[in-house]
Each structure stands twice: as structure tokens, then as C-alpha cells.
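Sorry to interrupt, but I need a hand with the structure work. Leave the record below and I will have a look:
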Amino acid sequence: AGPYNEDSDYFKNLISIVNKFDLAATVTFHGQISKEDMGEVFSKTDVFINLRKPCLNTGSWSLVEELASGKPVVTENFGFAHSLPDDVVIKLKATSHISELKKLSKILDETSSSSSIRKKYGVKGVEFVKENNSPHSNLYIFHSYHGVRLSVWLS
């Protein structure tokens, strides 16, 4: 989700990866989503893939929203995500190397076919957001989403 340029080399590369690994039936590029439609998109999503170019060493509001939704999140092991416990998010190396793309394909196969894996990461993500919502933690309370208070990382 989010704005993208269909003519950019980056987007074309993403499409080629989706096609190469036969992921067209499971990967959706939503584009910009209104706040009104966000809940519906989140409810229909089984696994979030939170990859960025460039990958910045900052907090990620979208990643926190995804964790709070109770769905597994696949992201790069860099910046904010690097500091998250391994049982909260599924981490990839921050690279477009073919081995990581194959790993992503395998992860999508495993998570799409196993409700227990999806549930395990989903529960841990919600627990992490709830447990780290205090003035004494590294998170800052910022918003409420589906009854779960969301936060932005301030480390």
C-alpha cells in the first residue's frame, strides 16, 4: 500500500520478481489507500510484506499498524525492524540478492499454507505493541487502531 510509480524501475523490478516466483495470485499492490478503506484491506490481508526502497533507519508507522493488526509481517532486518524480536516479525536481509528473494517466496508459501504460523506471528505482534505502550518504554503512544493503541518507535 502506498503511492508508487508504475513506470519506475523499482516498481518494474517488483513486478518481475512477483512474476518470476509466480506470486501474482498472492501479492497485491494496493497503491494509496484511504483511512476509510485501510481496515478492510487489513482484514483481507493474510501476510504483510513491508519492504522499502530506500530502507531508512527510522521508525515505521506502517510496520506498527501491521503488527497491531494481528497479521504476520515480513520486513527487512534493518533499522527499526532490526530492533524487534525475531518472534515478532519475519526478517529478510536488506538486499535484493536472489537468495533473499527465494527466501521471501518460501516464506510466502509457508505462511499462506499454515494458519498456525500466521497466528503465531500475529499474536506476538499484537502482544509486542501492547506491552511496549508505556511512557517508560521506547515507544510513544500515537494512535488507536481496532482497539489496539499504536506507537511510533523513538529509539
